[in-house]
Amino acid sequence: MSDRRQPVTARPASSDLSAFDWRRVAYLVLASRLIDEIEETRLVPERKVLYQFSARGHDVPQVLLGSLLTHPKDGVGAYYRSRPLLLTLGLSLEDAFASPMGKSGGFSDGRDIGVVCNLPGRDGPTVLPMAGDVGSQFTPAAGWAQALRYRRDVLGEAAYDGALAVAHSGEGAVATNGFWSALTMATTLRLPLLFYVEDNGYGISVPSHLQTPGGNIVENLRSFKHLRLFDGDGTDPAGAASLLQEAVGVVRAGEGPALLRLTVPRLSGHSGQDNQAYKPPERLEAERAADPLPKLRAFLVPDHLSPDAWDALEAEVRRDVEAALEAALARPDPDPAAVTRYVFAETKPDGTLDVQQAGGLAPEGVAFPEGTDRPDPEPSRTNMITAIRRTLEHELRVNPRLLIFGEDVGPKGGVHTATMGLQEAFGEARVFDTSLSEEGIVGRAVGMALAGLMPVAEIQFRKYADPATEQLNNCGTIRWRTANRFAAPIVVRMPGGFAKVGDPWHSVTDEVRFVHAVGWQVAFPSNAEDAVGLLRAAMRSHNPTIFFEHRLLLDHPSARRPYPGDDYVLPFGRARLVRSGAALTVVTWGAMVDRCERAARAAGVDAEILDLRTLRPWDRDAVLASVRKTKRCLVVHEDALTAGFGAEIAATLVREAFFDLDAPIERLAVPDIPIPYNLGLLAATVPGVDQIAEKMHDLVTF
């Protein structure tokens, strides 16, 4: 019996090369090659294209792969050298020219580098929004693959049967966190995911043996269970077509993930600015000799095309490409007045949602139950963690597309018990544990959202989100980067802040980092009622949301409130008036709300206290109205002082209410140090009641 973990390197006996439309393959390869040539020789020197990546040498196997991606629910995570694949999947020749020139329309309306593509699936596969980060395509592709199986098996949608996801990369990306995280997901869950690795021997100038030991990722993965391996020569049209056909077939048949490595020559520099001086002359000559285009011609002529037919095809391609170039050059530049649009979901003049083409629930017309911002409180009070759990449970019940996942959220019920009992109630397909990779948790969520699900991901502690920074940043900018073609509404639940003790790892808040990140809503409730309303709003939103859960407040008496009902939805950007007053405005959020209340009583100050509840958006109008009444303002928060969100509030007040102030705006926050562990040091670091009371007194007596 053969070892299925040994890589397939020869042409499979079952391959059917007649399944390919070889004339179309040749047309697309010639078109891609001519676009690259025109960019390199004309558009880059004329500075009409400022950032250019050629696919010369990679083009033949990419077109062959694209020819096999015929399922309308297939999804592709691609990279900057994927244009031949994109052309095969439906990218127009005109858009292929216009986007690198930064022209209007196309896949980003001039907002992103021209090779960072996307393609909403209409009658064919979806190309997930690409990013400029190497390796960032892997975990969203894995999320798409898991969503395919969920929609088929759990939601019962037969249209997803046989669909697959592809993660397309160069060999340099196999060294990244995203690759290994996606590989772990794919093999442990046996996802329908094909890893297609084009190995041209160099990551810019770094040879492949420094990316993976021995320079061949296939050889290093032989011990991986549940992974079919394929390895071959991408310049051999027949051999590459056969290997691609078998690899795609294995994944489509539900046999689990596969990885295919094809060697190809990089016939241009890494980018238009790279002269390849680091390559020895003999290497350059060997690469030119390995050019797959002459091999494709030799394979097709005369058996599939006559010499005259090939010449006619070349002439047809030149006419089409030149016409597309002229049309692209004639396009106007993007409208500068629109450059700030689509950071968040927008409404049309008639009040309806300006729906993105793909991603999230809105494009498929999914509607949520009617909610209300008027609570229907129960008689007894509950703590915040129970309120969060009940909200998650209800949304799981009413929204079959909602999934909850993260480390330890399954049988354990979460390290903070927020998901206790939910897996037992709703099953492992909807509430599940993940591997220990925050990159994987968030990237998976992005892919699932792009596939039409509502993922709710848990990061155990705020500091643990740092490895996922790349995916978080990319998720927030998807709508803007694609000019509203795509969006990935997800919820990332993120506990943090001090509790009974502090420390530099579990007690970080650093919420301003996510306020600064483009495209993210940020919620930071101070009590159980607000946590219910904001979490439900986040899970029904068209935008991605960071939902902070302060560790101290999860079971703190000050945060307990009656459960406000299963219909309670609290709009973002609406501050809560905690206490009315005339002498001083105090703006705060999170665990500092209770401390500010106690400080006002201790100081005997007639302070008006506003709990912002959300920081993106934040309630500017409420803060300005209060400060114009009291003439004084103190901002108290747990994040570090320098460039904390209090600085944004202060800057706004100086600009909008300067002549209303009778005293300087004051900020009270953590010094610019990590949160310490020792209780005495913790008390000296985080603003306490006495310290806040003293600052209040100083301000009102200024």
Topology of helices and strands:
Elements: H1 22-43, H2 59-68, E1 75-77, H3 83-89, H4 93-98, E2 126-127, H5 138-153, E3 165-170, H6 177-189, E4 193-199, E5 202-203, E6 206-207, H7 217-220, E7 228-233, H8 237-252, E8 258-263, H9 281-289, H10 292-300, H11 307-330, E9 381-382, H12 384-398, E10 402-406, H13 422-426, E11 431-433, H14 438-450, E12 454-458, H15 469-481, E13 491-496, H16 512-516, E14 521-523, H17 528-539, E15 545-550, E16 561-562, E17 576-579, E18 584-588, H18 592-603, E19 607-611, E20 614-616, H19 620-630, E21 633-640, H20 645-657, E22 666-670, H21 679-685, H22 689-700
Parallel strand pairs: 1-2, 1-3, 3-4, 4-8, 7-8, 10-11, 10-12, 12-13, 13-15, 14-15, 18-19, 18-21, 21-22
Antiparallel strand pairs: 5-6, 9-16, 14-20, 17-19
Helix pairs in contact: 1-2, 1-3, 1-10, 1-11, 2-3, 2-8, 5-6, 5-14, 6-14, 12-17, 14-15, 18-22, 19-20
Give short descriptive properties of this protein.
single chain, seven-stranded mixed sheet, Rossmann fold, elongated, alpha/beta, 702 residues
